[in-house]
Amino acid sequence: MTGAVKIDIIGAGSLGLLLAGKLICSGTSIRLWCRSDEQCAALSETGLTISHIDGRQPIIIPGSEIEAVPIREFSQRYPETPGDWLVLTVKQGVLHRILPELLGPLRETNLNLLCLQNGWGHMELLQKLLPAASLYAAVTTEGAKRESPVRVVHAGGGQTSIGLWGGGETVRNNVAVRLADTLISAGFSVLLSNEVNTMIFRKLVINAVINPLTAIWRIPNGELLCTDLRVRMMRELYEEAAAVYDACGISHEDSLWDDILEVCRATSGNHSSMLADVLSSRETEIRWINGSLVAMAERAGVDAAAHRWVIRMVEGMFVKER
Ligand code: PAF
Asked: Is the ipTM, as predicted for this complex, more than 0.85?
């Protein structure tokens, strides 16, 4: 890989727009694959605005600097002009629904893929779809909220940890180091980790505790800490998840409960991604977050009743055609 890094981002939701906008500003070549033609047209005409919750001047990227392409053209256009990295910022549901067909033609291609999903299940699917690819998982606590197809609010700087999936050295891996440097130059705080599973399992519990409760009660993350009852419910979900991990032989640190409380404090004014989905009547990721814990519990023969309940509560909010 020589010259400037070229990155393809699939998914122009909150995180996709934030990454694309900040990377374009730092001079990285970005091609943004959008699910709707209307969003592509709007980005090319109006440009992209990133506003900041702390009142700093918004960043405005003119449409002429944005290469937004409809995802339906991916299979035809991407293989002809692949970039150095493919970054997936679509939600788990979309990933499971559209990626098998979309990525089919790349089965034998040796590409670098970075996945920024919450939950568990996507990496195994991608490994099956792209056996020749180098897969990297990332977990991030960046706070981003999409206000419109061309506007995103950076609701709080977080930390993004990246690790090579399937084991192996990430910290001294040149390709990963170069990506991390690119993201750091764009203003993100990035850590490379050789402990990718630990990193994903830790985030899974954080999401499994914060996301469903904030979605059910429709409150920002910080308000989870406002009453004893809410904290007790959080604790119950946490203890059940910890027991599932113990039964499955998955190690977790004693500090995890304190980490969950700290995430609530650090992101106190933010809406969790699940609450944002519920408020926009979008499908949530509960099946891949709490649902993964329930599936692990079932395999290990232990109970995960609280996680099963929150799944029903969140899924029951949507009226599906029978
Ligand atoms: O999904 C989310 O919203 C985030 O991962 C987190 C860390 C819970 C903060 O809102």
From this structure: yes
